[in-house]
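Follow-up to my earlier ticket, as requested here are the two runs.
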Amino acid sequence: MTIVTDIEIVRQSGFNNIDALLSSGPGWNFLGTGARSLSYTFSVSSGNEASRGGQAAFSMAQQMATRTALSYITALTGIGFTETTDGSRAQIHMAAIDIADADTTGLCSWMTSYTPPSFGTTVRDFTAKAYVYLDNVEFRAENADLRPGGAGYETLLHELGHMLGLKHPFDGDKKLPFDDDHTANTLMSYDPVGGPYQTYSPYDIAALNWLYGRDGLGGTYGVGASTPYYTGRDIAERLTGTYIGEVIEGAGGDDDIDGGAGIDMAYYVGPRANYDVTRIAAGYVVSDHAGDEGYDLLTNIETLHFSNGSVSLDYEAVVQALYVGYFGRAADYNGMQSFQGQLAALGAPRDMSALAAAYTKDAGLHALIDSFAGSAESAALYPGDTAAFVKGIFQNVFGRAPAAAGLGFWTDAIDHQGLSKANASLSIMSGALANKTSQGLLDAKLINNKLAVASGFTLSIDTAAEVSGYGTKAAAASVRAMLGAVTASTDLSAYQSTIKATLGAMSGAPRAAGDLPDALHEDLPLTHAELVGVGFQNWEPTLV
């Protein structure tokens, strides 16, 4: 639904490098929910701009280069473009023309039309057109050659930028600082630095992300959609979200990214294989070891998006805590996805202490957590009496046996006070994390290190061989040993090599840290992994 203010008011991001490039039109996002592509034409026989004459058709070479530019824009923005020979039906017109100003090499004009609503604010007949011209007199030779890498192609990208809704950074109320106003930052500038360019510069991309969210017209992200898209600069900076969900792209530099409230996504342009993802107490660290996106600290981010798939972080921390506490190992790929989905469906709390508190009040959560104790893996790990179970949990969590008082307390609570084994594991873990005594702080450091290693292990699983490889008793035992070697003083960065070696050994494909294959997460098998003789659980209906 388009309203009058959508058309008349420029929606700004609050980021000057974006807002300084936003124009008031043409407003392609507001054509209607059915508009997924824009039509364009090279025809000059119909549909020409009424106020201009003398249009000449692009040469075949110019047309081919323009199609190349539009394909690039599609890859960048998600907007589709459909060519038509009927100029009267086209929304975008390309032509050569003698531009009156002898210093102007290209020009773009646009127009919008709608009938003001007779009541309310909803606009039902919004249309838009844009006209892209290249000078064929003073700049004839330059514009005749539109091959990527030349000055003509950069001019074409500049004018297509106007067509997409970008303005000059020195026009209007919002402007770039003088030192930032150059083509290395934005092709919409008149001040050349470097070039000629055959791609848009960082500020252009940030503004196009804001407008179209990389998923085109009528998508989920961008202006007019449900989720804003923020893009930073190629410097170290803090990027903070709002009370709603958004996409945040650091775009280079060592960034501190806080999604705030809502369900937020951190966007990375490369494939998953290019990044290391590490859990720390404050959140997650994503480091680009193949490109220039830097080293980002993420908090309140629920999803990581890569060019070949996405990784969910929602509930990742609590699922790992449940696995480490109860089974002494990192979560497997299928178990992680299953528990994340079911915790989300239950609207469960996202931290251990709140989860422990909710356990007794939410029947669905109670049943989900208790399923740990009912598994065959639990029976195999804890075949003895309750005291042996408590000792096993303490070994998983603290790497030591419980004191006599603690052993007696937890054993009695399970045997005589109605405390379930699963809730005991949950309570021991959450209680340790909340303990502020000197020993408690040391225990919390150990636990957080174990959880970080477990997280790094599961987040590194991204091939079918690794999913199936982590499905045997031997594999589970090796992961327990890996976690058992973690201490409160373990260097988590150095331990990445141990994580990779453990994962590589069980998949039959040893690899160094950062040497991850390019595999789509969506293509990984959602098949059951026979970890320690686990049968299909009641929390695994999607895996059957």
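Run two:
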Amino acid sequence: MEDKETINILIAQLLSKDDEILRLRNLLDDLQREQQSGNMQILSKLDRALEELKSMRHDNKALSNRLSRALEAKSAAEEKIQELSSALEALENTRADELYEIARQKRQLYGRKSEKKSSLSATKQKDLKEDKDDFDGSAPSAPVEDLEQKAAESASSEAAPRSESPSCRKDYGKQSTGAENVVVHYCDESDIPSGARKIGIREWIQYSIQHQVVKHVFKLVRLVDTQGNISNYYQPTDKNDTRRPFENVLEGYPVDFELMARILVDKYQYGLSLERVVDRLKDAGARFNTSTVLAWIKRHMKELCKLEEPFRQLLLTPGSMLFSDETTEQVRVYNQQKGKYEYRKQYIWGIKNPDRKIAYYLYDNGSRSMKVAQKFFAGFRGSVTTDGYNVYKMFEREDSSITRYGCMAHVRRKFVDALQTDHRSADIINLISNLYWVEADCRINLLSEDERRMERQKRAIPILAEIWQMIQPVFEQTRGDTANLFLKAVRYAVNEWEAVSRYVQNGKAEIDNNPAERMMKPICMGRKNYLFCGSELGAKNASMLYSIIETCKMNGLRPVKYIAEILTKLTAGETNYMSLLPINNNKEY
């Protein structure tokens, strides 16, 4: 009985297990059906994504075609712009040539403008701004009423033959222009159209210049020897290629000396800012950063500054006649009180020695104090022509080895400023113009120093005496009066009279300080264009570059070629710096 119950229990358990298995099978079937449904949805989504990809590919192809057509149109437009630019440049060159020819013909027809004596007597209400600061002695010494008679006499004497003066300029005709490199282009006469005949040859001249910076890439072969030493090897495949790597460059600076010289001349001779120099290089097909170019300048200036002491020694040659002046420059300096950098007005001295054909610019912490002058001119024996700045009065001490000459142009300038307020200035200006006519006659007749001194004593001393008789009573009578423009001019002339009139005793001396005044022009151009120097080192480097460029111009040398050649010699180990100065170089750069 018990066995039967056990069997029934077991059967019941089996039946319950069968029901569980059936339930699990139904659940598995449901899961399979859901999986198939999900797979179908995924496949449909994939199909839709594939269709979208096909559509996008078609759109991309259309966009690619449109972009290709746009690039072709852009290329055609650039070619058209290039053609128009070339045509515009040709038109501008033609216009510039025509304007130059018109200006040249006007100068030949009407002559140069100058300060005429008639303007001093006829126009008393002249604007002071229209009067030039520097007087060059071009005013006539004849009275106004005699001008028309002299003009008629000169016109009638043009037909008569005149002896050719050695100081006259020549070759102002068609051959006054030229170039060193000449390429002749011949015409092929075999293709002359039928029915035409040759009647002559006509020459048409065109000047061009290649503004292009070339990037040279050298493929160096790295070699290793049996001992493990590694070296570079380079031999050009073209036997006519003379350029070699690491030549005409400073180590670590990939710019050759000629390009570096052009950068320096553009900045310091033509007064371009560093940004404009970089823009010019960009026009020549090269892109450089201003900081990179500035680093190049600083490094190359270390080599050129080796010539500073030889420049000074040659300038201060004993017995020389110097001309000295100073001007301002904005320089970025450090203010210790405020603890920051600021721009201040600093001074640069300009000293010229025409006998030795050398110009020197001095920057000594931006000062123009007496200590700077004493330090620079220490041990010099000679003469200096200056304006009335008080520092130069130290040369007038009894124990001084330097003779100071004054500047008549500064004296005249004071009376020109007073011309509008006091008519007496016109008479003094007329007398000063007569002094300059004496100097002009000496230059035209090519007088020697002794002949020049004798001519001055004969003709200039009476004029100086007449001027002194006019200004000395005014000075004595107005000692305690408030100084107006005319009295200021009189007092300046009286205080400077001994130095100003000293030139008549020396045929080597000049009447004014204009040689030094003209030295200041490059600095004034730079002050207007690049505004300031970024540091005191920059101001010192600028002074050295001004010295080199102005000295090259005095010696008839081209600054670009000279600087490039000197950098080559300095980096090659040349230590005889005196032989590198422009005056000691016989080679024409």
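The only thing I checked on run two: The two ends are 138 Å apart (CA to CA). Let me know what else you need.
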